[in-house]
Amino acid sequence: MLRTIIEKELRDIIGSTKFAVTFGVCALLIILAFYVGARNYQVSRVQHDAAVAENLRQMEGITDWMMVEHHVFMPPNPVSSLVTGISNDIGRNVEIHGRGELTAEDSRFNDDPIFAVFRFLDLDFIFQVILSLFAILFAYNAINGEKEQGTLRLAFANSIPKDTFILGKLIGSFLALALPLLIPILLGSLLLPLMGIPMDGNDWQKLALIILAGFLYFGVFLTLSTWVSTLTHRSANSFLLMLILWMFAVLIIPRTAVLLAGRAVDVLPVDEIATQKSRLMSQLWEEDRKTMKDFKPSTEDVQKVLDEFNRFMQDQAEERQKKMQALSGKLYEQRRNGQLQQQQLSFWLARLSPTAAFSLASMNLAGTSLSLKEHYMDAVKSYQQTYSNFFKEKTGGMLKSGGFIMRRMGGEENQPPPIDPTEIPAFEYRRPTIGASLGAAMGDLGLLTLFNLIFFAGAFVSFLKYDVR
Amino acid sequence: MTTPENTPETIQPMMATRNLSKRYEDGVLALDSLDLSVNPGQIYAMLGGNGAGKTTTINLFLNFIDPTEGEAIVDGIITHQEPLKAKAKIAYVSENVMLYPNFTALQNLDYFSHLGGKTSYSAEDYQKVLLRVGLQEEAHDKKLRSYSKGMRQKCGIAIAILKDAPAILLDEPTSGLDPKAGMEFINLLQDLRDEGKAILMSTHDIFRAKQVADIVGIMNAGKLVAEKQREELVGEDLEKLYVEYMTGYMDTAVQATDASVTVG
Amino acid sequence: MLKTLIYKELKMIIASPKFTATFGTCAVLILLSIFIGIQEYRGAVRQYETAVQLNDQEMAESTSWGSFDTRVFRQPDPMQIFVSGIHYDVGRMTGISRWEEIKLRRSNYSDDPIFAVFRFIDFTFIVQIALSLLAILFTYDAINGEREQGTLKLTFANPVPKVTYILSKFIGAWLGLVIPLLIPILIGLLLVMLYNLPLTGVHWAKIITMLGFSLLFFTFFIAFGLMVSALTRSSSSSFLILLVAWVTLVLIIPRAGVMLAGQVQSVPTVAEIESKHAKFSQERWDQHSALISERYEKRNAAMEGLSPEDREAYEEEKMWSWMEEDDAEMKNVQADISEYGRKLQEDLRNRRAAQEKLAFLLSRVSPASAYQLAMMNLAATDINLKNRYEDAMRDYRTAFNGFVNKKLEDSGQHGGFRISISSETGVNIDTGDIDTKSLDLSEVPRFEDPRHSYSAAITPAMTDLALLIFFTLIAFAGAFSGFIRYDVR
Question: Which of B88, B100, B169 sits opposite C151 (nearest CB)?
């Protein structure tokens, strides 16, 4: 019995012109999203490699490590190019000093605001819009449409249990719609290796999980639409309702929730931090300048004096640095706490919409969620330590401190040989492992499953009470 | 019996077709040189099965489609040449009257009367006509979405009456009516005839046709195969006549039933 | 006749159950967007004012012209309430000093990426998404729905000219949807007035123009819905077509157009530009130091053989001219470097402009892009926002540095500290002026935000105006010719 209903549902959906048209459009857009993601990756890869090469090239011919300006850049990642998240909004380029605070600059949208005008077209966006609309278009009249046609009466003139019918409907429509969608998704995935995108096992697993999240999201809208169609007697009404729900879920709730809830939490503004820091900095600087007056060299030898002075400056810088770090550590922690609170409140509110849950899950899986900024900065900070050790080794324990550059003038001494920039330890940014990503996305995947279950149960229960006449 | 006033030469028919033919884009000849005429004060009933050409004839009168050959004439106006002028003289009731479901009966009547060029009716006028077609007063302010098929049909007839046009086209007017309402409708038609309206109706209903028509035309496959005046029908077995001319129709009817069995 | 038809159309729209639901939704969304816009704007003003104030305090606390610098911030514009555009993506501030180039840093989104996760909601977004859907919802079955109902047949059994009918459909839908929508819009504007935002006449002129554009965009979708409805037989297929078209026009084409242009027309990245600049400046400074050491040697050579006393006297005598000479050379280098930077920027801008032109040309295939671009231009949150600010900031930098240089000259101060080490006198550290009192800041030039006049806003929007009118006319012509040939049965 169940099989008959599922088969009928499959035939009914796949045989319709509506299916041919919408499936064609969806397939095209999904493949487009994969293509755009792949191209995006290629472009970012070229830019990144050029920037890294340029960074090294600039060090050529420099004879003193103290003169080196070293930058690291966020490397692109194939999965992150498919689900861009906030990766275009945050800085990618960090100038590495041996000590002190690091800031990431040059976000893609700030550099190329043209892409900020209409935003990116990525897999996340396509899935958000397309999968949900596709589900609605085929399920909004699942029950009431059959009633309007009169086929529901006819079906229940036979000895069919209601639960079998609704189960068959849901399974049938899910299979009929989800399985064909696998085709463009697989084609799109195939496009990645074809275009030479280096996907490793980790990346493939992440992509597979993103697609799984996509199907869960699709299921949410399918079960919700079916439920709504059992709550209404006219398909025009259920469609209208679903369209409004769609608009709210996809476009309104996530944005509004974050804007309203996010602003409700007080977060220490960066300007405030910057000012407090710069105030302390100038205070310390002035104190140091006073102590500098007391500097008395122990010898008369110029070279030794210079070394001694450098060391003196170095010690002062370390001292300043400690004080600065104490302050900024305190301030950033304060900001961080505010941000966490803000994030919790606004994301939980946004998760009223399954679209937000899906989007957050896929961003977490792709490593482009809010934690990208932290994760990247943590990686850069640990690199800073490596770099600083390397640098001290090269310069005999000296570090460059901001704003203080010594230029040796005159050709009295022999020019030392140029440095070898390739000696600088390479910066490697490791994306979170699949385990970590999955861990971060688990909550949202669970939430999507929960949405599915609730809406399924809703459809089930209200169909049991449905008047089939 | 034939007085000079009654001869076709002196009375201009209100509705007439001349050599009217219609071939659709798919090549089907739906109407094949039809000639008929309806005088004021006459009811002409077109009998015939599905695909006989009855609805095509009505559509040609309303210029919903253009004729392939010949012409349909209303009060001397060739419909496909001056459709707007012609349509001012026609009232029309469709087979399955559908009106605006979100409007009440009165609102629907008001709207269509305005379209028919009648702008001076009051609410009482509408109510009077609705009562006349047999629609109870408590239904007048209800939205049409709650109406049954028969009630909608009555509304459609009321709209036609309100238009007060000299020619009336009825496409299967009694199809949704119960026997009592059907009877009332026949009486209404007779009243309208007595007011001097020319009425052209298409129907499957042999019984009603015999009861009310002044002329019965039997159509089959786009052709008018027989035309009988009321006088000629007296004593004639119309059913037998109909079946005689309609062998083709019976075949199609059987086929249609077969088809519906397989579909169901 | 026309009046009867329009009247009926209005009644039908307003009496339909979907009207209450959809109109209510749109009204709430419009008000919500304006409310959020106002809140965000006020937040931005607070942020801006605090930042400026803190910066002023810092300036007031500084004691040396030598290390005197400042920061300037982009001032929020109340127009961003309606169109946030790229406002949140572009850096908010730049440092102004003699040693820093202008660079907009710290965009809102990079500071607070949480708001970048789902992006912004503003009036333009609502019009683009919700109102276009509303227009479609009420027109997709305008013609074929009446045919399915059977009322089209009944209507055309009367002497109704088709032209009048389609015209009445259009006017009826327009009036039936626009007039109700004006209510929340006007309430929203009232809200804007109640919050007492600093809106000038130019702002109001822009707001009214923006309203006009929004209505025009909305009108396009009414005409478009009518057209599809007049070209199809069943309302379910017209709705499907319209929904697919809507997704394509509103959500896909604008993005795809820009992405495509990005592929075709490449632009050097900021990193590339900066590295070129850095390379040039490094070369120039190397040249400079070579020159200086050459001079040094020459000067030393001139003093060869002089007794220490004569040498000191000679140095004393020449000191000023040497310093001036060196100073002039240094200024030369600085000027060269900033000129090169300017050229690089100009080149970058030209190539960007070419890319933008192509990108917007491609996206403007969709009226949704034309609409958004026009709105952004009107609200001054368009793509040129960054350039306008960088130009103004660069001008300000020149004025500021000129001022500081003059102050330095007047006061005889110098930046930083000077360490001299010589075998004779040992190490001598001159920390300059730390004990001087705070500076007189009354004459420091103030930064003025670039002005954005009405004509600057409307001129680039003219193309989009023309396009929107063109699209609307095409859609209307399509509806018209489709309906003239429509089989009403």
Answer: B100
**Cβ-Cβ contacts under 8 Å, A55 against chain C:** 275
Q: Is the Cβ pair C110, A130 closer than 8 Å? A: no
Share of chain A above pLDDT 90, in %: 14
Pick from C149, C159, C488: which is nearest to B98 by CB? C149
Q: Report the range of poorest mean pLDDT among A199-208, C223-232, C320-329, C438-447.
A: C438-447
pLDDT at A225 over 90: yes
Q: In chain A, whose CA is at the least distance from the CA of C237?
A: A18
Distance from CA of C399 to the nearest CA of A (A): 23
Pairing of strands B198-203, B167-171: parallel
**Residue of C370, C358, C373, C374 lying closest to C471 (CA atoms):** C370
Which residue range forms the structural domain that includes residue A388?
1-258+356-401+429-469
- Contact between B143 and B103 under an 8 Å Cβ cutoff? The reply is yes
Confidence band of A423 (pLDDT split at 50, 70, 90): confident
Task: State the nearest Cα–Cα gap between B109 and chain C, in angstroms.
Answer: 12
Residue of C nearest to A282 (CA): C62
Residue A276 forms part of a structural domain: no
pLDDT tops 70 at residue C427: no
CB contact under 8 A, C120 and A373: no
Domain total in chain A: 1
Q: Which of B83, B88, B94 sits opposite C153 (nearest CB)?
A: B94
Q: What is the mean pLDDT of residues C7-19?
A: 85
What per-residue confidence (pLDDT) applies to A330?
A: 87
- CATH topology for the B4-89+165-229 domain: Rossmann fold (3.40.50)
Residue C422: pLDDT over 80: no
Question: Is the complex ipTM more than 0.90?
Answer: no
Which band of pLDDT confidence, cut at 50, 70 and 90, is reported for residue C414?
low
Reported for C45-53, long-range contacts at CB under 8 A and 24+ positions apart, including other chains, are C45/C76, C47/A269, C47/A271, C48/C73, C48/C74, C48/C75, C48/C76, C48/C92, C50/A269, C50/A271, C50/A272, C51/A271, C51/A275, C51/C92, C51/C93
Residue spans of the domains in chain B: they are 4-89+165-229, 97-164
Spatial separation of the C-alpha atoms in residues C232 and A315, rounded to whole Å: 82
Residue A229 placed within a domain: yes
The tokens describing B78, both together, are 């060739």
**Residue A30, domain member (yes or no):** yes
Structural domain contains residue A277: no
Q: Which of A85, A133, A289 sits opposite C431 (nearest CB)?
A: A289
pTM > 0.80: yes or no:
yes
